[in-house]
Design goal:
Elements: H1 22-31, E1 56-65, E2 70-75, E3 78-84, H2 90-99, E4 103-108, E5 111-117, E6 146-151, E7 154-159, E8 163-167
Parallel strand pairs: 3-5
Antiparallel strand pairs: 1-2, 1-4, 2-3, 4-5, 6-7, 7-8
């Protein structure tokens, strides 16, 4: 079933305010829509009230040219080249491409500019997920009082007072060369 075309409401419109009645809210949903962009190649000067100038819209990433700062995106049924906003790190777009997540874009003088990405999957540290992998040159985890790594009945606890505690049913430590255990006192059993 085809959906009727929706008209974007300009920001200064009073219709943007949430109506009090249920009927009014339903009407507001019908007349308010996210704007869509035209391909940059066929863009003509838009009037201030045109949907392409109304705000942000969603773009599907297809390919990234990191050197040029250009990302190929699909907006509606059209494929266009969009530039990355100055504040956007290319790794955000790479992650969106890998995870199949949409980008947030805006029209700036007939050109599509990518402003960010929409996270549609669990984010480590915020939502609970099945698997997380963190890759970086350096990873630092700081806890003012304590840092704990826990998995089932096993845990490693780092305490601010200079204490490291390892708890598990079985603990194995291996070294391919020298394995040092240094301490003023070493207690074995």
């Amino acid at each position: 079933m085809a959906r009727p075309a929706l008209k974007a409401v300009p920001p200064e419109s009073k219709k943007e305010r949430a109506p009090e009645s249920k009927k009014g809210r339903e009407h507001a949903r019908k007349v308010t829509a996210l704007p869509t962009a035209r391909p940059a190649s066929s863009a003509s000067p838009a009037s201030p009230a045109s949907p392409a100038k109304a705000g942000l819209f969603v773009a599907v990433p297809l390919a990234l040219d990191e050197e040029k700062g250009i990302v190929r995106v699909r907006v509606g049924g059209d494929e266009v080249d969009a530039k990355l906003a100055a504040w956007l790190h290319p790794s955000v777009v790479k992650t969106a491409l890998a995870r199949g997540e949409p980008l947030v874009a805006q029209d700036e003088d007939g050109a599509v500019v990518i402003a960010g990405a929409l996270r549609t999957q669990a984010t480590p540290g915020i939502e609970r997920g099945e698997d997380y992998r963190i890759e970086a040159e350096r990873v630092e985890v700081v806890g003012a009082q304590q840092v704990s790594l826990v998995s089932g009945a096993s845990q490693v606890v780092l305490r601010a007072m200079g204490m490291v505690e390892t708890l598990a049913q079985d603990i194995t430590a291996r070294a391919s060369r020298v394995h040092k255990i240094v301490g003023r006192m070493i207690h074995l059993n």
